[in-house]
UniProtKB/TrEMBL annotation:
Its main location: nucleus. The keyword Translocase does not apply. GO terms for cellular component: nucleus; snRNA-activating protein complex. Belongs to the SNAPC3/SRD2 family. Coiled coil: none annotated. The keyword Nucleus applies. It is found in: Nucleus. This is snRNA-activating protein complex subunit 3. Transmembrane segments: none annotated. PANTHER family: SNRNA-ACTIVATING PROTEIN COMPLEX SUBUNIT 3. GO terms for biological process: snRNA transcription by RNA polymerase II; snRNA transcription by RNA polymerase III. It comes from the Eukaryota. GO terms for molecular function: bent DNA binding; core promoter sequence-specific DNA binding; RNA polymerase II cis-regulatory region sequence-specific DNA binding; RNA polymerase III type 3 promoter sequence-specific DNA binding.
Length: 387
């Protein structure tokens, strides 16, 4: 909570998002019509600005095409990098060929190399799975975004861990990176944030490991809030939701705290357009009672013709952090599905097990539990994509 209170070094001055749109000159939004608030094809815009015929723009597009830079039948397929012809006698090519042959001969070496080459995050900007299926030129109707509009980039960081050690300088990376529209509500973003703690089942299932009827934590504890510039935006969409903000405000109002004025609003009624934010300033998203995530507004820009104008594509996941899955400590092959306490067959306490190893070690042929174990469902972070 304290991270979102005060102006940190490197953050921008306070930005009123609604004024961000109003201060822009209409001429800097290419292709937008003042009457119907829709984009005009870019060829028509260029023809009007350059005072030439539309056919001239089409000819320029053909002349300036990047394919004109190719020589004859030059190939652009990157697969040619793995099919090296024998006629090429360059040192760099020979080294590349030797490296590829080593990878094919040694699978462990190949796996090690590929693992080190992987990016720390997965960029999904151009993934077709992010868009709703629609035909080119299809009328979106009520799903078409009203223009002008803004796109706000928001980074969501992993749950905050309280460390007892001092002077710890571990660099944390964002788990998720979203693009949201200014006309969307904060509750729309919350519904898209995936956290493995939402899948927790806080019950010992060792007596009946096949019980699939236990509710998840997200179904039991639906409360949550965003804390942005002194305002608690509470999720009050369900009768069982609690106002976390009021409790914290009572604590903050005690003499000597010096935290400043705070207030509460409903998350499901707050538009991003009405927020006052600082780019680079850490704010707080909290759910499950004490699961705190830092969120940072990293960019605000106008919606442009290259962006999707279908409101169903937003909030849009742009990146998600690539994480290593937790393996079963017994077979070291399958992903962990159980965390077990007091197991006589485990090298550590508690210990991770996959489904097969968990039942093989802790139950007899009749399915009866062996020993005095406690078992809880475990959901790996790599599986928490869309909850």
């Amino acid at each position: 909570m304290e991270a979102g209170q005060g102006h940190i070094r490197g953050a921008t001055e306070l930005i009123i998002i609604r004024e961000f749109i109003q201060k822009w000159d209409k001429t800097v939004i290419p292709g937008i019509s003042e009457t119907d608030k829709k984009y005009t094809p870019m060829r028509d815009v260029l023809a009007r600005e350059l005072e030439v015929e539309r056919q001239t723009i089409a000819e320029l597009e053909g002349v300036c095409n990047a394919n004109n830079l190719l020589c004859g039948e030059e190939k652009t397929d990157i697969s040619m990098l793995s099919c090296i012809p024998d006629s090429v006698d360059l040192v760099s090519v020979r080294m590349q060929k030797r490296e590829l042959e080593r990878r094919e001969a040694d699978k462990i070496y190949k796996s090690t190399v590929l693992r080190r080459l992987k990016y720390s995050s997965l960029d999904e900007k151009n993934s077709s799975a992010l868009f709703h299926d629609r035909k080119p030129g299809e009328d979106l109707g009520d799903y078409e975004i009203n223009l002008p509009n803004v796109i706000i980039n928001i980074r969501v960081y992993p749950p905050f861990k309280y460390l007892k050690m001092q002077h710890v300088h571990n660099k944390i990376m964002p788990d998720l990176n979203f693009n949201v529209l200014g006309t969307q509500k904060l509750s729309d973003l919350r519904d898209k944030i995936s956290c493995v703690n939402d899948l927790a089942i806080a019950h010992d299932l060792s007596d009946n490991p096949d019980n699939e009827l236990m509710p998840y934590a997200k179904d039991l504890y639906k409360s949550g809030f965003f804390y942005i510039e002194g305002v608690f935006y509470n999720d009050m969409r369900y009768p069982e939701c609690q106002d976390y903000g009021s409790t914290i405000m009572q604590w903050a109002s005690q003499p000597g705290r010096g935290i400043g004025e705070m207030r509460t609003e409903k998350m499901e009624e707050a538009l991003f357009l009405n927020l006052n934010v600082r780019l680079g300033q850490p704010y707080c998203y909290m759910h499950q009672g004490d699961c705190e995530h830092l969120i940072i507004f990293s960019d605000i820009r106008l919606l442009n013709p290259d962006d999707s104008v279908d409101i169903r594509d937003y909030p849009r996941l742009m990146k998600k952090k690539r994480v290593t899955r937790t393996l079963c400590r017994a077979c070291m092959m399958h992903s962990a599905r159980w965390i077990v306490y007091n197991s006589e067959h485990a090298p550590e306490n508690p210990c991770f097990f996959c489904d097969q190893c968990f039942k093989s070690f802790h139950y007899d042929e009749h399915g009866k539990k062996i020993g005095n174990i406690k078992a809880y469902k475990y959901f790996d972070q790599s599986a928490a994509i869309n909850l």
